[in-house]
Amino acid sequence: MFKYVKHSVEKIDGLALVTGEEHYTNDFSFRNMLYVSILHSTFPYAKIEDIDDSAARAMDGVVEVLSYKNVKKILYTTAGQGFPEPSPYDSVLFGDVMRFVGDNVCAVAAETKEIADAALAKVKVRYKQLKPVLDFEKAEGSSTVIHQDDGAFPKIPVFYDASKNIAAKVEAEVGNFDDAFAKSPKKIEHQFYVPYASHCALEPHAAVSYLDFRGRLVIISSTQVPFHVRRIVSVVAEIPVSKIRVIKPRIGGGFGGKQEVLLEPIVALVTWRTKRPAKLVYSRKEVFTSTRTRHQYRTTFKVGYNKDGAINALHLDALENSGGYGSHALTVLANAGSKTLPLLNKIQNLKFTGRGVYTNLPVGGAYRGYGATEAYFGYGQIVDMVCEDTGCDIVEYYKKWTIKSGETSPIFKALGEGKEGVAMIVTSTSLNECIHVGAKLSGWYEKRKLYGGDFNKGKRDKRGIGMVALMQGSAIPEIDMASAYMKMNDDGSFNLMVGATDLGTGSDTVLAQIASEVLDTPVEKFIVTSSDTDHTPFDTGAYASSTTYLSGHAVKKCAESIKNQILKVGADLLTVSIGEVEVEESRVVVRRKGKQDHHQEVSFAEICQSSLYQKNQFQIQATASHVSPKSPPPFAAHFIEIEVDTFTGIIKLLNYVATVDCGTPINPVLAEGQAEGAIVNGIAYALFEDYYFSPQGILLNDTFGKYGMLTAHDIPPITVKLVDSFEESGPFGAKSISEININGALPGIANAFFNATGKRLHRAPFMPEYVLSVINE
Amino acid sequence: MKISFTINSRKRDLELQPNETLLNVLRKNGLTEVKSGCEEGECGACLVLLDGKPVNSCQVLAMSVRSKKITTVKGIGTLHSPHIIQKAFAQGGADQCGFCSPGMVLAAYSLLQKNPNPTREEIAEGLDGNLCRCTGYVKIVEAVHEAASKLRNEKSQAE
Question: Cys-Cys link to A465, which of A109, A401, A641, A740 (CB 3.0-4.6 A)?
Fold first, then answer.
C-alpha cells in the first residue's frame, strides 16, 4: 500500500553516526573560546550573604565571573514549554537563595577548563544555612517555605501557593466519586511510591556560543527545544530574539532531560559580555545533581467495584516531589491522570487530585512517560487486584473495559495541560489485538495457570507472569505547533527544512519518508535540515510524543502543496489539464481512464528546470504548519515473566513481550527501537534506579557506576510486536510511540511478582531488601 | 610537550600535558569521534583500541601510551568506506542517538577479532562495558550478530 512509509529505511544520518563523522555540541570548538565552570550549592537550603570572587578574578586566565551580583534577577521557568508556560516562574539564572544541593551559585569563564575549575575553589561564598525540607510528604504547609519573598508566580492563571510549598495543584472529577465509592460492595485502597531517576542520556548537557560575523549570538546546544531556547535566552539574557540563532546539531539522547533551558543562558551571557566564544559541558555528576530528574511520586488509589469486577468509582490522588523549582510540576501531574484514567473509560465516577510540592531536593522535569509512568505503577496493579479478587481473567477484563474506537472519556476534557483539556473521540485502536497477540507470544494462559498453581510450591525460585495495558498521547492538542518548509532543486531533489528536533529517534528520516510518500520520490532525494532557528521554521520541539504525529503532519501538508505545484507545471509542459496528470516515481505522467500514457511524461528535474529557468518562472516551494485538535493515544500491552529468588529478594526477568499500537509505523525498525529502548529504561527504573541522599540532601549515587545502568548483558529476551491501526488524523495513519513503552515494567513486574508470590509491591525500585521484606511480611 | 603517536595508522605529533588523559588529548586534537560520556571509565563512549585492545581512553594517561598504536572508530571504517560492523549498525537500527556508537562499534570489532562466531550471549557479554540508553541493546546485539556472519562469509570467500 505504501512505497516509502512503513518501510525500514536506514537513518539518513546512520552511517555518519557510526563512523564518528557527525558532530555533537561538545565537538564544536572555536578560536579564543572560553571554558565555563559552575559552582554549585553544597547546601540544600541556604541564603548567600555574600560572594567574594576577587581571588578568582585575580587568577591568570579568568575572564568573567557571573553571579547574582552582576546578573539581573529575571524570574522565568527553565521548562522548555510553549508560551506562556504552564510551569511557575520561580527561577532566576543566579540567585542568592540556594534551594537544593546542586543549585547554581556562580559561573566562571576562563581560558581553559582547568583554570575555570581551579577558580571555582577560590570563590568565597558566605552562606546562611536554612532548615531544609527533605521529605516531600512533609513539604505541604511546612514551617519552611522554599519560595518566600522571591516573587515566584504562575505565568498562566492556575492555582499556586508558594506559602504552602505548593508548586502545582490539579483537581478533576467526573460523576460523583464519594457517592459511588460508598455504595460499592467492594473497596480497596492502596498507596504506591516511585523514586527519582536520571535520564542518563549518554551525552552530558552541553552548550557552546559565539558571535557570528555580524555580531549575532549563535548557540549550539544539546537541546530538545531550540525555539524555546531562543525565546527563553532572549528573556533571561536580555538579548533580542532577532540577535539569537540556536542550532541543535546531533544530540546524544534526551528523554526529556534536555527539554530544559539550563546551560544556554549562561554561555550566552558570557559570550555577549566578553564577545568571545564560550563552552559549558556538564560533568556526569552535574547531570545527575543539577539538571532535571523524574519526579518522585506517591500515588493513592481508592477503588470501589462490584462482585463481577466492574469498577464504579476510582480516585487517584498524586503527590509529586517537584524539588527546589516547579519545572513541569503542573503538567507532569496532570498527565499522571490524563494518560491513565481514560484507559478504562467505562468507569463512571472518576476523581483525580494532585499536588506538586517544593522540597530542597533535585528538581523534577520532563522524563519519558511524563507522569504516566509514575501513575501506571499503581493503576496497572489496581486492575490486577480487582481481577484477582473477582475472579476475572485480566486479559479479557482489559479487552472488555478499555476505550474503543468511537468512544471517548470525559477525562480528555477534564484534564488538560494547565487548562481545560480537549474533548476527543478515539478513532484508532488495536489494543484488543495487541492483548490477543501479546498473550499468545508470551504463552500467557499456560504460564499464568502454571505459576498460579503448584509450580512454585516449596521452591526457592518462584516464577510469575504479569500483564498490563497502557496508553499515552500524541502531542499536546491545540497547544503544540509544528511547521515545515520545502523547496525543489533543478535535479528533482528537495530541501526539507523542519524545526522538529531529531534526538536520535530518527525523526529526520521519518519526516523525509513522509515527504517521499507524498511525492513518490526516493528518500535520498530529500535534503533534511532540522533544528536551526535561522534556517528552519518553528516547531515546539521534541517532547510529548509529538514529532512523527505533529511535525509529520506539517511535512505531509507541505509536500502536498509542493505536489500541486509540480502537477500544475507538469500539466502545462505536457499541454494537458491538471486533472489528467499525476505524480509517479519522480515524474508527472498523464493518465486517462486509469491508464498511463507512456509517451506523455515529464521528470521532476525537467519540471524544476522549466520553472527555475524557462517558462513562467518561479521557485517551487511551500510551507505548512500543523496544530492537532486531538492527541490520539497509542496503546500497548506488556507481558512480563519473572523469577523471584525468595532467599535473596532478587527479581530476574525471564521474558518481556510488548505489543504496540502506534497507528502506522512510518519506519518499523525505528519504531521498534523506540519501544525496546523505553522498555529497558522502564525495567531499570522498576528494578534499581533511584536517588540516594545523605541526611544533608546530598545525592550519594551520582555516577553511572553508583547509580547503576543496565548493559547488553543484563537484558532479558525482549519481543516487540507492532500491531498497526490507522489514525485518520495522523500522517499516513501514524500515532506516537516514544514514551508509552516505559510505563509497562513497573506494574507488569509487580503483577508478575504477585503471580509468583501472592504479595504486592508498593514501592519502587524493587531492590532485593525491599522485595525480601515484602516476601517475609 | 609534543609527543608522537600512531593514530589510525598515521603518525601524529600531539601537544599534551603530562597529566592529561588520552581522551582529552585525542579530542583536543580534533579526534572528536572519541566521545566523552562520564570521564569515569563507566560508559565506554570513549573506547579506543590500544594495540588492538579496547580501553576507555578517559582512564589512560596519554603519556603512558606513546609507543602504542591507537585506533578510533574512523580507523576501522569511514563514511565513504564503512566497515561491515558499521554498515550493520546503520542498517539494523542499532544507532539511535549515535553517541555510544563509536565505542560500541569498536567493542564489537574487538570482540569479533577474538571470536568471529559469537553467540548472542557472548556478544552481550562482549559489549558489557558499553552503555546505551536509547536502543535497549536489542538491535545492537542483532547488528553485531549480523556483522559477524557477513564477516565470516567474506573471509570464507576470500580463502
Answer: A641
Reference B120, options B141, B147, B150; nearest CA is B141
CATH superfamily of B2-75: Beta-grasp domain (3.10.20.30)
DSSP A224: S
Cβ-based neighbour number of residue A616 at 10 Å: 9
Bridge-based pairing state of the strands B47-50 and B10-15: unpaired
The minimal CB distance from A20 to the residues B72, B133, B140 is found for B72
Cis peptide before A410 (omega within 30 of 0): no
The predicted complex's ipTM stands at: 0.98
Q: Which CATH number fits domain A481-627: 2.40.40.20, 3.30.450.20, 3.30.365.10, 3.30.2350.10?
A: 3.30.365.10
- In chain A (777 residues long), the average pLDDT of successive 10-residue segments reads 97 98 98 98 98 98 98 98 97 98 98 98 98 98 96 97 98 98 98 98 98 98 98 98 98 98 98 98 98 98 98 98 98 98 98 98 98 98 98 98 98 91 96 98 97 95 98 96 98 98 97 98 98 98 96 98 98 96 96 73 98 97 97 98 98 98 98 98 98 98 97 97 98 98 98 98 98 97
Q: How many Å apart are CA A346 and CA A274, to the nearest integer? A: 62
CATH number of A296-476+630-775: 3.30.365.10
Is B56 at the interface with chain A, CB within 8 A?
A: no
For cell 574512523, name the residue.
Answer: B74
What is the identity of the amino acid at A158? V
Gap from B129 CA to chain A (nearest CA, Å)? 7
Helix then strand then coil, % of chain A, to nearest 5: 30, 25, 40
Which residues of chain A lie closer than 8 angstroms to B93, CB-CB? 8, 11, 506, 669-670, 672-673
